[in-house]
Specification:
By secondary structure, this protein is of the alpha/beta class. The chain is built from 4 helices and 5 strands. The chain has helices at about 30-45, 85-95, 105-110, 115-125, and strands at about 5, 55-60, 65-70, 75-80, 95-100. A 5-stranded mixed beta sheet has the order 1-4-3-2-5. Helix 1 crosses helix 2 (about 85-95). It is globular and about 40 Å long. The two termini are about 20 Å apart.
Length: about 130
């Protein structure tokens, strides 16, 4: 089953570096804490699965960025970060390999279970 977690849910105040070119630097202590928390969650995922974990970061616009991680055993999970810069810093600190796109060998390894299949069928059937 997928392990989706939303880290750093958007808040009313927007002190993140959306769209800013900060060269990877954190804009505030709050961003540093968000990055540290996200890094811990990525490391927890990698520790729970044997073998290397690969990731891909997808920019979600104002919502931030989504990190999709796939373990060697096919288990996958995702996290949402407040900004793409925070996501990039967290995966770098966690030491996982990041791919440019979610295709090829990485996508081939993903294993879905009954939960995902029922959700896909429910969406197609209007449920």
């Amino acid at each position: 089953m997928a392990e989706t977690q939303h880290s750093d849910e958007p808040t009313a105040d927007s002190d993140s570096a959306h769209g800013a070119s900060g060269g990877g630097s954190m804009s505030s202590g709050r961003d540093e804490r968000r990055t540290a928390r996200l890094t811990r969650r990525i490391i927890a995922f990698t520790d729970a699965h044997e073998g290397p974990v690969e990731g891909q970061i997808a920019y979600l616009g104002q919502s931030g960025a989504r990190i999709v991680m796939v373990a060697e055993d096919g288990t996958w999970g995702d996290l949402v970060a407040r900004s793409k810069e925070i996501a990039e810093e967290a995966v770098e600190r966690a030491g996982i390999t990041v791919r440019e796109s979610f295709d090829g060998p990485m996508a081939d390894r993903v294993r879905t279970g009954p939960y995902e299949w029922s959700r896909m069928a429910g969406i197609q059937l209007g449920g």
